[in-house]
Amino acid sequence: MKITLAQLNYHVGNFDRNSRLIIDTINQAENEGSDLVVFSELSLTGYPPHDLLEYREFIDNCNRYLEIIAGHCLSTGAIVGAPAINMGESGKKLFNAAWFLTDGKIKDVCFKSLLPTYDIFDEYRYFEPSTDFNIIEFKGKKLAVTICEDLWDEQDFDHDFASSRMYSISPMEELAKLHPDLIINISASPFAYTRTESKKEIFTAKAKSYRLPLIMVNQVGANTDLIFEGNSMVVGPNGNIISLFPDFREHTESFELDNIIAGDNNSFNKAGKISMIHDALVLGVKDYFDKMEFNSAIVGLSGGIDSALCLCIASEALGPSRVRALLMPSMYSSRHSVNDAVELCNNLKVSYDIINIEDDFRSIESSLSGIMKDMPADTTEENIQARIRCILLMAVSNKFGNILLNTSNKSETAVGYSTLYGDMAGSLSVLGDVYKTDIYRLARHINKKSEIIPINIINKAPSAELSPGQKDSDSLPDYDVLDSILYQYIEQQKPVRDIKGEKVSQELVHRIIDMINKNEYKRFQAPPILRISNKAFGHGRRMPLVAAW
Amino acid sequence: MKITLAQLNYHVGNFDRNSRLIIDTINQAENEGSDLVVFSELSLTGYPPHDLLEYREFIDNCNRYLEIIAGHCLSTGAIVGAPAINMGESGKKLFNAAWFLTDGKIKDVCFKSLLPTYDIFDEYRYFEPSTDFNIIEFKGKKLAVTICEDLWDEQDFDHDFASSRMYSISPMEELAKLHPDLIINISASPFAYTRTESKKEIFTAKAKSYRLPLIMVNQVGANTDLIFEGNSMVVGPNGNIISLFPDFREHTESFELDNIIAGDNNSFNKAGKISMIHDALVLGVKDYFDKMEFNSAIVGLSGGIDSALCLCIASEALGPSRVRALLMPSMYSSRHSVNDAVELCNNLKVSYDIINIEDDFRSIESSLSGIMKDMPADTTEENIQARIRCILLMAVSNKFGNILLNTSNKSETAVGYSTLYGDMAGSLSVLGDVYKTDIYRLARHINKKSEIIPINIINKAPSAELSPGQKDSDSLPDYDVLDSILYQYIEQQKPVRDIKGEKVSQELVHRIIDMINKNEYKRFQAPPILRISNKAFGHGRRMPLVAAW
Hints:
The structure is a homodimer.
Chain A: E1 2-7, H1 15-31, E2 36-38, H2 56-71, E3 77-85, E4 94-102, E5 105-111, E6 136-138, E7 141-147, H3 171-176, E8 182-187, H4 196-210, E9 214-218, E10 220-223, E11 226-229, E12 233-235, E13 241-244, E14 251-256, H5 257-262, H6 273-292, E15 296-301, H7 305-318, E16 323-327, H8 335-348, E17 351-354, H9 358-372, H10 379-400, E18 402-406, H11 410-415, E19 428-429, H12 436-446, H13 455-459, H14 479-490, H15 506-518, H16 520-524
Parallel strand pairs in A: 1-2, 2-3, 7-8, 8-9, 15-16, 15-18, 16-17, 18-19
Antiparallel strand pairs in A: 1-14, 3-4, 4-5, 6-7, 9-12, 10-11, 12-13
């Protein structure tokens, strides 16, 4: 049996595009003599469809397109992910399903049993967990078809609580009783740099434990905040990895089942953390623009490292001709800021404009003078500068259709060192899940071959340049100390008393966590943030606003 | 047996405040000879605690305070809602629990079985559904303790799909087998004007069906977007309502069980829809400020009806001395706008300032002239005006600590007739779940006794006044037509083909729905919206941004 794994990039709700992609792949596989083509979880709808699943019309469309796709499966069989209506008397309205299509018809269906409902996942919002387990028989082989989380039954919690396993059922344990020849897992498993190794282990362990060959097909591409790395896998019955599909790009490849069973372990040179984050962010920006059919981007360039890195990523994702920069120095901008920013634009071949905001600042100041009288300057005046820049960026965006990219990093987003309706503005936050210490690593990664980002931008002390002589270090600890506290609290969800590290006192931990909690209200209004960790700000982290904690 | 129902207002995560409230009520009930005091669902944490439940420290605090509260229960028993750690080998880490405290100790606990995971509810994100059912025995009575959704097993879906019931288990059916004397339901059921009648029916039907007395205790008060109306109930075994607690305020009252069983049906004059919405919004603003310890509010007053209504509600919630208004006319403001706004401030005794934004607009325009050249004016210039107003409002907010209230209504929020980082700014959206047609009804409701809102504000044709002679009706259908389409699509989730009404063509429906979908990205960055319907923008409506639909 020849099996084709189709690691493809889907667009949520775009049935025309997704079904065309699926049908083209089926036709090609059929031409190449493949017996079975496997697509990823909810491939027909794209993942995640969110509340579109609540609209009857959306589900009717799924069924209609599924019939069309089935019409293209002749001798070849296909496994396609799409929701199924729950025809039972009770329960949630839908199942998350793997449809088996062949002979021009819908032949069989398997339902997902374990529904991730944590972090960015909301599957129990829509789907009934299945308690029936069935095998698909095709061309003399028995296929155990599982959907993503179905094989993750043994995952541990990230942090210490009473129970050790999230699920009470093991779908594969049930399916094993039916003596399958092959485990198939269709996934929609988003990228997190903290999870790349553990993902591999889950599939190799399952194959080994049941002494069965296993194929896993993941989707690739970005849908708003979520970026899927692909990394589909073919695993032999000893847990040996026969094939690991590439990161962050579409890939379709076929394998003979006998060769999977007999195959040797192959070694794969995985990219490092920073390289994967870089590729994820580039794909995140690219897909956002491609799928929204946006033509071009605008970035406000301060001369600092965050906006410089953001411009590099945008330029790589879209090409320099589809990106423009706006430099908006004020009376507090350092001498080098404009020069550094201009040099960066020249290096990237990105066009730029310069508007000095001093006059606009004086005009606003004068408008407010009747109310403010002679009150001393404070963060009010700093915020006014950030908000004037937002007006200018959005004006260019509105007039020319350049989509504004937000350049805030995760460290400042965490502690609230950013201005709502100012530098927090943008359609998409490119770096909002990247800690400042990793911002530097990414900048050096980009400069590996040649100095694209002027070294001065990397070396200067971080400053918002909103008041005379201001430095980030005036009011924040060093970024390696800060990021270590943030990571332990946000990603690892450690209790305050367990947050430790060099130069980390309990007083500092309390001060930082207080800043995080006090700024939930700002993050509530932040743009969607490209997610690269296991706990990004946004949908996956739902903290109350009105709360005393 | 004398039973006390405690309808109280909790603050999420504020264990000191919540436990003090609970202990004071227990002490008072004990003094009055009550046998049992019943508090609402998750009363100790406040509802909804969201991801605070994922922090081990938060749960440890729950347990610690629960012990303290138990120490105050002597002869009186108390039922308190708080999470419980799942001590089993598998499953989610917590149960949503009702704790039974008496004799100074934690005596017993019941776990929630049906976990709402739809709209604003995410309970399966945190809790394991219980499959065990136990009765609490106390002073010779058997108590069937249920938690909110546990009695909602028969609820229908709002719209047509295959299965007719969301849940496969009926907790009360299981508990009935244990022959209870009384049904207790502890709730955290937020207000929606569409649901007040159906809520009552659920409890009267359950009491009648099991021929048992029933008490339901709901929390009251607002936590960010969610407003809880209270309306706790005492129902006799014939389904007769013995007592219906007031809307939107704390209330504690005791009942003899024998009197509940023997009691007659009482009739209750319920407030109408508009009156309830009004009271909900006032409480929503009040609790937001009280619980966040914010002193005062600022409202940008345009002379239009939305900001006028918002100012009235803020003034009622906080008192006029804790509210200030800012009038920011431009060259496009109509002659009456400033006069009407000033008259309103005088009627309310709210202080105001006036800043003409024309100079700031000219300054920004001049800054942009190098880039814009002689391009014709479009929405860019309209947005600049809205964003200058945002800068001024936020500057006053930053300098004086007045919290900005957002004044957008649901109709314009739906179709995107508002400026991101402009009039979409604010800490809290007061009217974002109120359709324009209801905005008028609320204004007339406020003017019932005397003309607080100048009649000219109510009668003038709606206009954003951002370009010469602009009227909402230039590009939108009449608001009664628009709101009818919006309601059918948003609240009722009807398929496009089923959206009908006077002056409603399929072309118009398509155009409006297209506007709704295209503006998801704006609403993603909107402030939290006080929720008064069964489907508000925000947490309860999760639509994908990058999607073709």
